[in-house]
Amino acid sequence: MQTMSHSSLKKGLGQQWEGVDLTLLDTVDSTNDWLKSHSGDLPRLVVAKEQTGGRGSHGRVWCSPPGGLYWSLETTFLDRLSTALPLMVGVSIAQVLQALGFHGVGVKWPNDLLVNGAKLGGILVERVYDSRHAPSVIVGVGINTTTPKIAPLIQGRSVVGLDSLRASDANPLDGDELIGRMARAVLDATSVPADALEQNLQAQWSAFDVLNGQSVKIEQPNGDVVEGNAVGITAAGALRVSTAAGESVFYSGDCQLKSL
């Protein structure tokens, strides 16, 4: 699916974002870490065929074998980093995939892409404060492409690749152009004030929310575990959970569907 082509990435990014600085790598430890250690003009996009030290939320290892779609985008910092940002990134990516015929993609709060409970991809958002440029944010994305390549690497978790989400007779898709389209959608969605981003998320979230009405458990940073039913998000992107003691709101934490 991926050939590492500047022209395909540029095509996906479109005319508005044709000035995005591009870096293509065969192998890297982490695309997010690469951006942190290399200076450049913003916005900038780094794409890799393989990550040897990919990571997700809470420091978890993200399996990144050759052939997946691994990319990180660094762009200007919003006026404030909202909890809604990774959710809006997820919705933007899901919309692109849906438009291209990859059906059933949803977003699990706060940063996973799922299809029928199986993990398709993940999102890692990190703030950067660097004296060489204005404050910025790095959005890292990893998406599975071929299920058989990734499934054996993750034990105890259900995973899925893009290959199983389109009709077998569908036209082949250029992976680099797809990355460009996803990056363009993220840039479009995040190039607004935080208040506008939150309003846009409220209008679009319900169509992709895989947790709404589901029984969940949330492990908080202090180790406490709360169980209840997810009932959507707040205006700022925090998860709302109905518990026996009433409604609780979570701005961070590890959330899992109890059925998984």
From TrEMBL:
It comes from the Bacteria. One of its GO terms (cellular component) is cytoplasm. One of its GO terms (molecular function) is biotin--[biotin carboxyl-carrier protein] ligase activity. The keyword Ligase applies. It is an enzyme of class 6 (ligase). Its EC number is 6.3.4.15. Keywords: Biotin, Ligase. The keyword Chloroplast does not apply. Residues 6-194 form the BPL/LPL catalytic domain. It catalyses: biotin + L-lysyl-[protein] + ATP = N(6)-biotinyl-L-lysyl-[protein] + AMP + diphosphate + H(+). InterPro entries: aa-tRNA-synth_II/BPL/LPL, Biotin_CoA_COase_ligase, BPL_C, BPL_LPL_catalytic. Gene3D superfamilies: 2.30.30.100, Bira Bifunctional Protein, Domain 2. This is biotin--[biotin carboxyl-carrier protein] ligase. It comes from Spiribacter salilacus.
